[in-house]
Amino acid sequence: MSILDDHDSWDENFQKGWLARFRETGQFYWDAYVRPKNKTTITGPAIELKSTRLMLVSSAGGYLRGEQKPFDAANPLGDYSLRVIAADTPFAYIAYAHEHYDHAAVDSDPQVLLPLGHLRQMAAQGELGGLTAVASFMGYQPDVSRLLNETVPAILELARAEKAQGALLVPA
Amino acid sequence: MGITHRVLPPRAVYTRLNRGATLGAPGNADQQLRVLRATLALLERPAPQEPIRLGESAE
Predict the structure, then answer these.
(1) Would you say A46 and A31 are in contact if contact means Cβ atoms under 8 Å apart?
(2) How many CB pairs below 8 A link A and B?
(3) Residue A9: φ, ψ to 5°
(4) Which of A40, A13, A48, A54 is CA-nearest to residue A142?
(5) Cβ(B58)–Cβ(B20) under 8 Å?
(6) Do A45 and B46 touch (CB under 8 A)?
(7) Inter-chain contact B20–A102, Cβ cutoff 8 Å?
(8) A4: CB partners within 8 A, 6+ apart
């Protein structure tokens, strides 16, 4: 079971197509970008939410203001690093570095992308077994190979360290 | 929807909510919780699950 079918083929296409043309010209050729495609999907067992430690995975570009380095949001080749945010972090401590969505909603109400208050409430009421730290990344990542080789292993390492039993990805 | 349809995640939810406000409109905690609970409920079923479409929108 793999996260991406035909990864080698995708990577060759990316290196010789979109990436090569970007490096030659500094321009984006999205027509040459081959979007990943799977033929099969990952299987997994059902879990009981009330006994599950859930990990929120966010692609909104959240980071701890003044404590963590912001994501390199302006990088045309993306940023594949991870920030770890404690589940009890007040929203005022979290800023967002991501240039590919309008921040008006998240600046007005962070729970539209980072539902930590709702999830904490659900855990307190017994709907969820608990919360791990949040795995936060900046979801502009055109190089899927780097996503698979850098971002995903970092998320899995955090999930194991935090003893996560389920995960929720909220894309931005 | 396009990329989700292509990569076939084990579970997924579609809405008509705005980009940048994935779980609901700002200040609309009831809507955010509806989307959140409907999404989390998929974890209580074995994967893969067919993606579900919720009637939630920004309007």
Answers:
(1) no
(2) 101
(3) -65, -45
(4) A13
(5) no
(6) yes
(7) yes
(8) A10, A36, A38, A144, A148, B7
Q: Do B29 and A111 touch (CB under 8 A)?
A: yes
Whether ipTM > 0.90 holds is yes
- Tens of pLDDT, residue by residue over B35-56, are 999 999 999 999 999 999 999 9
**Amino acid, res. B8:** L
CB contact under 8 A, A47 and B44: yes
Looking at the DSSP bridge assignments, the partners of residue A138 are: A60
pLDDT tens column, A2-55? 789 999 999 999 999 999 999 999 999 999 999 999 998 989 999 999 999 999
* H helix or E strand, kind and range, residue B13: strand B13-16
Residues 6+ apart with CB under 8 A from B39: A168, B11, B13
E strands present in chain A? 53-58, 62-64, 83-85, 94-96, 130-131, 134-136, 166-170
> Does B55 touch chain A if contact means CB atoms closer than 8 Å?
no
Distance CA B33, CA B20 (A): 16
Contact of B30 with chain A, judged by CB distance below 8 Å, is answered with no
- As given in the structure block, the two tokens for residue A171 are 């894309």
pTM for this one? 0.96
